[in-house]
Amino acid sequence: MQKTIIFNLLIVCIGAMVAAGCTSTVSTSTPTQATTGTIQPSTETPFQTYTNPTYQLTMSYPSDWQAQEIDPSTCWAVRDYGKNTCNLVNFFSPTAADGTYNTFSVDVDNPTTSTLEDYFNQVTSGVENSYSGMTVVKSYFQLKINDDKAYELIFRKGSASTAPPAIEVVTIGGNNVPYIITYKSLEDPIFQKMLESIQIPNTTTSVTTKQR
Predict the structure, then answer these.
(1) Averaged pLDDT, groups of 10, the chain, 212 residues long
(2) What's the start-to-end Cα distance of the chain, in Å?
(3) Residue 205: other Cβ atoms inside 10 A
(4) Which of 47, 72, 115, 149 is the most exposed place for a label (fewest CB within 10 A)?
(5) pLDDT confidence of residue 132
(6) What are the structural domain ranges in the chain?
(7) Contact in structure between 143 and 149 (CB atoms under 8 Å)
(8) Pick the CATH number of 47-197 from 3.40.50.150, 3.40.1000.10, 3.90.550.10, 1.10.10.10
């Protein structure tokens, strides 16, 4: 009888030890899972808003970029795509360690009677005439700016792969005013964010452009 009692006590103790071991295993795995799922805080640069009341242009740009607004009385100049357009605003990124930086420019032209396709072809021809041996990387025809159709020309200002890159995006807004967006980079998510943020008139407004 005594042996039976001792035997039963041993079984109870062993069971308690096994249970304690299982409990310990579960409790140690929980913190590990929680640590693995921790979300790191975002370090993305905040954006701020630029507005041009004359052309009713609104867009966002990184807060650490510099905005250079051009005086309307001096904004008309021949650009690299061969058009005598008004350079509204330029944005400059911080200078990198190697001395390089990106630029994002917005120009407008006088109202046009051309279709977007014809106007884009004029811009493309102007770029080709400006840069001997220019290499077209891609022409894209399915963009949207503020619900308006837009065309994109991606190119290098020379035939070599090391030639300076550029992107031209063309759309025609309200009053048939062409907008030309230029960017000095081929692959950059910041460019896409800035481009997608653009709001321009897409219906007839009272905007008046300077005549050549």
Answers:
(1) 45 46 40 39 78 91 95 82 86 93 94 94 89 87 87 90 90 92 88 94 51 32
(2) 117
(3) 14
(4) 115
(5) 82
(6) 1-37, 47-197
(7) yes
(8) 3.40.1000.10
pLDDT for residue 203: 57
* Residue whose pair of structure tokens reads 């390089």 in the numeric block: 100
The distance of Cα 159 from the centroid of its chain, to the nearest Å, equals 26
What pLDDT shows up at residue 158?
87
Rounded Cα distance between 210 and 73, Å, is 9
Residue 29 pLDDT = 39
Rounded CA separation 104/182 (Å): 6
- SS3 (DSSP) at 100: coil
Find the Cα–Cα–Cα–Cα dihedral 56, 61, 67, 72, rounded to 10°: -20
* Count of beta carbons in the 10 Å neighbourhood of residue 147: 8
Is 190 strand, coil or helix?
helix
DSSP 139: E
150 near 172, Cβ under 8 Å? no
Task: Give pLDDT, residue 25.
Answer: 40
Angle at 183 between CA 177 and CA 189, to 5 degrees: 115
